[in-house]
Amino acid sequence: MRIATWNINSIRARADRALAFLERTGTDVLALQETKCKDEQFPREAFEAAGYEVATLGFSQWNGVAIISRVGLEDVQTTFAGHFGVEPVTEARALGATCGGVTIWSLYIPNGREIDDPHYAYKLEWLKHLRAQAESWITPGTGDPDAQIALVGDWNIAPLDEDVWDIEAFAGRTHVTPAEREAFAAFADAGYTEVSREHIPDRTFTYWDYQQLRFPRNEGMRIDFTYASPALAARVTGATIERNERKGKAPSDHVPVVLDLAD
Q1: pLDDT digits over 187-219, tens only?
Q2: What are phi and psi of 115, to 5 degrees?
Q3: Angle, CA of 231, 98 and 228, to the nearest 5°
Q4: 201 contact partners, CB below 8 Å, separation of at least 6
Q5: Average pLDDT over every residue of 236-257
Q6: What is the pTM of this model?
Q7: Are 230 and 191 in contact (CB under 8 A)?
């Protein structure tokens, strides 16, 4: 089974690229972030014609998540318990579904903007609620220790200094602060494993800004990850970052991260 996550940065602008990626790579489940459209605007017919089922969550031209699967799409969930510390829920950032026996959550973690911006505190609170829910799903008594769960998407955090092209350039900025990195590491404390790190070398990035020739200069960031529950982590046989998807006509500023699972 092959799972991929991709911040597509507008599915209506890049549906053809997503379809070509699915065909080229044989991906069974594709989790998308930043789809940037309402549910009724998502080009689902093109994916359904290619043999995929589609679940979406989108309220406006901002944010948005989706799951595209050819191995089943059941138990669709559009929010975790609680409201991530924010009332009311107004952003489409989390979508879950069971695909081929694996519960997959497509996640678009808040950016944080600036350290002194309320959105930064919102980001940390969002992660706190997500972590609490994720832990409950695999804890005896509240969940199933054998559950196969993948938390995939754009985490908007660079956990290591090596995950940005120049750590000094990020001094005083979001994505690399101790609080964000602690929030990211808390998922490991909850029993999950970030499974791409073992298979992908350091300084392999998943995002390059469109400005200042960041991609040709390889001035990128690694901010797209997959956290797996213990039962799922045991099935992982490999992971890749599809860097070539940043090339060509009208690419997203992110590239897919692909995970392979043993049957």
Answers
A1: 999 999 999 999 999 999 999 999 999 999 999
A2: -60, -30
A3: 30
A4: none
A5: 97
A6: 0.96
A7: yes
How does pLDDT run across 82-113, given as a tens digit for each residue? Answer: 444 444 456 899 999 999 999 999 999 999 99
Residue 186 and residue 182: Cα distance in Å, rounded?
6
Other Cβ atoms less than 10 A from the Cβ of 203: the count is 13
Q: What's the CATH superfamily of 2-261?
A: Endonuclease/exonuclease/phosphatase (3.60.10.10)
Q: What is the DSSP letter of 171?
A: T
Tell me if 261 sits within 8 A of 3, measured CB to CB.
Answer: yes
**Helix H or strand E encompassing 138:** helix 118-138
Residue 60 binned pLDDT confidence (cut-offs 50, 70, 90): confident
Picking from 257, 250, 232, the residue whose alpha carbon sits closest to that of residue 14 is: 250
**Segment (H or E) for 22:** helix 11-25
